[in-house]
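testing teh design pipeline on a random one, pls ignore if ur not involved
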């Protein structure tokens, strides 16, 4: 009887197999959750860029009200933007501003997405004030 009490008292920690199983489970959970979180961050950057384009559009409209025309460049309308600076997209790229558009507006503001290059798909797709991106 004393032997059983002695063995029960000594076994207080986890075995190596138990520790490996717990670490494996944590790894599986992290990979599943991590993958879904990365997609959420990319979606947030696209949404942030759309909001920034909307703010630039408001500044362009204010410029037009004051000057009766749209500016030749975004820096001309910077006075009407937050901190009097032209914002960048969520990937720290400059917006492309043209005085004509593919959607009938007098101008178009474009972010070239994560890669900063024209075209692309998914998170590299262009985001336009005309709303012609993939989402």
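output:
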């Amino acid at each position: 009887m004393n032997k059983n009490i002695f063995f029960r008292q000594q076994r207080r920690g986890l075995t190596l197999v138990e520790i490996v199983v717990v670490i494996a489970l944590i790894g599986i959970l992290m990979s599943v959750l991590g993958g879904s979180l990365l997609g959420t961050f990319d979606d947030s950057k696209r949404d942030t860029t759309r909001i920034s384009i909307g703010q630039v559009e408001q500044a362009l409209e204010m410029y037009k009200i004051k000057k009766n025309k749209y500016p030749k460049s975004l820096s001309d309308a910077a006075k009407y933007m937050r901190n009097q600076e032209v914002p960048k997209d969520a990937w720290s790229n400059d917006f492309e501003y043209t005085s004509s558009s593919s959607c009938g507006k007098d101008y178009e503001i474009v972010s070239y997405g994560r890669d900063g290059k024209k075209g692309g798909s998914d998170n590299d797709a262009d985001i336009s004030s005309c709303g012609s991106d993939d989402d």
